[in-house]
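Objective 1.3, modelling of assemblies. Example input:
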Amino acid sequence: MIRLSIPLRQALARLSLPVLIAAAFGTMLLGKADALLAERARTVLADALAPFYAAFAEPARSVRDVIADAQDLLVIRDENARLREENERLRRWQAAALSLEAENAMLRRQLSFVPERAPAFHTARVIADGGGVYARAVLLAVPPEIQVRRGQIALDERGFVGRVTEVGTRSARVLLATDMNSRIPVTLEGSRARAMLAGTNGARPRLQHWSEGSRPAEGERVVTSAEGIAFPAGLPIGVVRWTESGVPEVELFARTDRLDVVRLFDFGLGGILPPEAIARPEPRARR
Amino acid sequence: MVGRPEPSPGLLRRIDALARAALPTFTTALLLVLAAGPTGVPALVPATALPCIFFWSLFRPGAMPPPAVFALGALQDLLTLAPLGIGVVTLLVAHGLAVSWRRFLARQSFLFVWLAFCGFALGVAGLGYLLTALLSWNLPPLPPALHQAGLSAGLYPAFAFFLGRVHAMMTRAEDTP
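Predicted structure (tokens):
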């Protein structure tokens, strides 16, 4: 080491800063004069640092992943709520899609399908429950100008309710599907199997006489069948529910215990009609 | 001096002292290189250089001599895309001012030092802006310079905390015989 006297060292130390600042200005001018020089120096530095950055890239990426994971965790609650809501919506759509699929399959089986006319209906108010010879029946107030005939079908806003059995001048009686005397030909929507829906006077009518090998599945939709020419096909009735004792029942879509307004559809069908107290010819206006 | 002369330091002790003297410069260079990585913040390199150099110039000027500041400024200029030499000039000026005021500043509270550093950051950014304008002979946009000043002023407490720890450790190692 070169030994310098202390005053000289102090002078050098005091001088080094101004000299270096001057050198820095010189560097500035040099960089301005020769732009390529700075570029070359940068390239050399980048080349030298490339292995360092490459080695550093992996931990940096894992740190970034951890940060992204943490952010995901923060929003996971909202995400869950959103997904649950979406799931609910998709389930509804799935139900719609399933029924459409069944309808489509049915339509494809009969290529020369002629669409039905939209059926005409009247709305009638329910004025009394029960009464008459049936345990489960409702009485409707029907204005005299409206022509109601036996065999018309009553639906509420959700599904099948029953069939008109007695007609007066200002009223009509509807036998509900839950009545013991009610027998309705139905189709199981999934398997297209036919069965009979027999009322029990309870809230849920039973399924009977389904075809061999086509056991009604839990939750399967039940619609009316056109067999017997009493009902049009495809009116929604309910879904299959198996009881604990192994009896298939149908949970009706219609709320038969709190009916206030029903729609009376005239499909022009007059298959098997219930017997009437006074035997008189029925005008069966086929349309 | 009365008494025996101090024993000649051994090899390990010399290496120790050398490492301690070189530590600030090397850690600052390492931090600059790290800050130049793909962080997405372009002003991070100058905002890292200034707090480190300011801190070491203030509390341990022996470990941050002007040539080291020159080298660090050159590194900063090369790592960023600024015109060559501007970082060198600004950092040397900041270093010189910090060293000449250190007797006063080093005795103040942290908050006061931080306030002073905010002034330094603004001054450095302004000087850099002025030099860039002079060098290219047109006015560059002002927001990047302000952004750089704000970023370095905001980063100073974090740097001061860690560098203060390192400084205390070094002081303790020097005091133990």
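Chain B has a mean pLDDT of 85.
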